[in-house]
From TrEMBL:
It comes from Antarcticimicrobium luteum. Residues 1-75 form the GST N-terminal domain. This is Glutathione S-transferase family protein. One of its GO terms (molecular function) is transferase activity. Pfam families: GST_N_3.
Length: 197
């Protein structure tokens, strides 16, 4: 059985959602970043952490890719043009959404106060809005690549939820409708319920 270490409020949400979509059983360990439990499995103290037997895997995207390939779901086959496009989309989301949001978080509360540059917030919100418009132009529907949900959808919706919470502009009607539909998925709701229980 898989074991997932992290908190629902972190990128561990992505891994938990993936496992719910796959219908795989897992043990969830509510573990804060930099905690003793996290450092025991990952010297950097970062979460999420997935334990599969003797293997300890880190980084949410690496974990999602591993699970998708292992179970042959939520991904296109390796070596296909569709997979190359999926990977390109995944990297775009990490670069243009996740990285922007993480930079904002670091300068809001993560870094020591004397190392923060709060003035960067306006620039990051502008960049995020520009990137969101570009993504909307590429959006096919009902999922990012059309008829098949992939790990890119999990990363995208997690980032858009993060953006809502961080008060970043998410104003594109098509992407708002997409996010609402994805949040309505039973697997998503089951993970959300972990933070409420």
């Amino acid at each position: 059985m898989y074991k997932v270490y992290g908190s629902v409020a972190s990128r561990a949400f992505r891994v938990l959602w993936m496992l719910e979509e796959l219908g795989e059983t897992y043990e969830y360990h509510d573990t804060k970043p930099q905690s003793e439990a996290a450092r025991a499995l990952n010297p950097s103290g970062k979460v999420p952490i997935l334990v599969d037997g003797d293997a300890v895997l880190t980084d949410s995207t690496a974990i999602l890719t591993y699970l998708a390939d292992k179970h042959g779901k939520l991904t296109y086959p390796a070596g296909s043009v569709e997979r190359a496009r999926q990977d390109a989309l995944t990297h775009t989301l990490l670069d243009e959404f996740d990285a922007v949001l993480w930079t904002a978080a670091r300068h809001s509360f993560v870094l020591p106060k004397e190392r923060r540059v709060p003035e960067v917030s306006g620039s990051l919100k502008w960049e995020f809005a520009r990137n969101l418009d570009r993504l909307a132009e590429r959006f096919v529907g009902p999922f990012l690549q059309g008829e098949q949900m992939t790990i890119a959808d999990i990363i995208c919706v997690h980032c858009l939820n993060w953006a809502f919470g961080a008060k970043f502009p998410v104003e594109n009607e098509r992407l708002l409708a997409y996010t609402k539909a994805m949040r309505g998925r039973e697997a998503f709701k089951r993970v959300r319920a972990l933070s409420e229980g």
